[in-house]
Amino acid sequence: MTDPLHTDLLALAQEAARRAGELLRDGRPADLGVAATKSSPIDVVTEMDIAAEKLITGFLAERRPDDGFLGEEGAATEGSSGIRWVIDPLDGTVNYLYGLPTWAVSIAAEQDGETVVGVVTAPQRGETYSAVRGRGAHATGSWDGERELRCRPAPPLDQALVATGFNYVTEVRARQADIARHMVPLVRDIRRSGSAAVDLCDVAAGRLDGYYERGLHPWDLAAGDLIAREAGALTGGRPAERPSRELTVAGTPGVFEPLQRLLEDLGAWHD
Ligand code: IPD
Ligand code: CA
Ligand code: CA
Ligand code: CA
């Protein structure tokens, strides 16, 4: 059944993402630098991450003052409406800093703790991906009109294109690189786009067969996880545990379980 509240939340998320995407694309200073660092010297934040989060939370709070917020750049309010917005104002900051095109704005709406709406816009790809729980996933941009997203029919794991990412914390990265080194000869190839939200949307769009990453935060994956699942992908962490903030795994049915098993065999669950 179509819930009119979800339709309204979708429209608001799409408009907030469009505005933030435009700000990031058109307002990027030529001399953009690092404003601060977080968990390690390579975990950077720019003035544009902060400006985009301000724009999104301002836009949404003006229209829905009773909602809660969780944003990477500090938004954290409870709200009283049962709706909470989970926001990554700029996913792929390092790409953005270097002028690489793969970065995105990610906005999800949770209702009583369950993600009901997810929107990811990638302005330099010219694409926006959206999903509403139970209503499928759709994209606009590189296609004529709106396209329904469906993940790809599964190849055997040794023919699967698998993306990953590396956490900013130095010790975690070293471990992740080790897992990837062992995985490379066992799959078609590995990709590292630099944006977890885009990786999940690429699984949804059939451009990747699978994706895994350790240590993502709720804002990295809230929208992309719903988009991938509504496109028919399976997502989760350890078998029978979903969602896991520890190890995120997504894949087309048929790749998801073999990928989970391979990660298990490679010891990816352990520190
Ligand atoms: C990062 C990106 C990257 C992933 C990191 C994330 P940020 O988010 O999604 O692909 O590997 O784990 O933290 O900091 O650019 O928003
Ligand atoms: Ca960041
Ligand atoms: Ca992120
Ligand atoms: Ca971010």
From TrEMBL:
A Pfam match: Inositol_P
Keyword Transferase listed: no
PROSITE patterns recorded: IMP_1, IMP_2
Gene3D superfamilies attached to this UniProt entry: 3.40.190.80, Fructose-1,6-Bisphosphatase, subunit A, domain 1 (3.30.540.10)
Enzyme Commission code(s) on record: 3.1.3.25
Involved pathway(s): Amino-acid biosynthesis; L-histidine biosynthesis; L-histidine from 5-phospho-alpha-D-ribose 1-diphosphate: step 8/9
Reactions catalysed, as given in the entry: L-histidinol phosphate + H2O = L-histidinol + phosphate; a myo-inositol phosphate + H2O = myo-inositol + phosphate
Protein task: Catalyzes the dephosphorylation of histidinol-phosphate to histidinol, the direct precursor of histidine.
Protein name: Inositol-1-monophosphatase
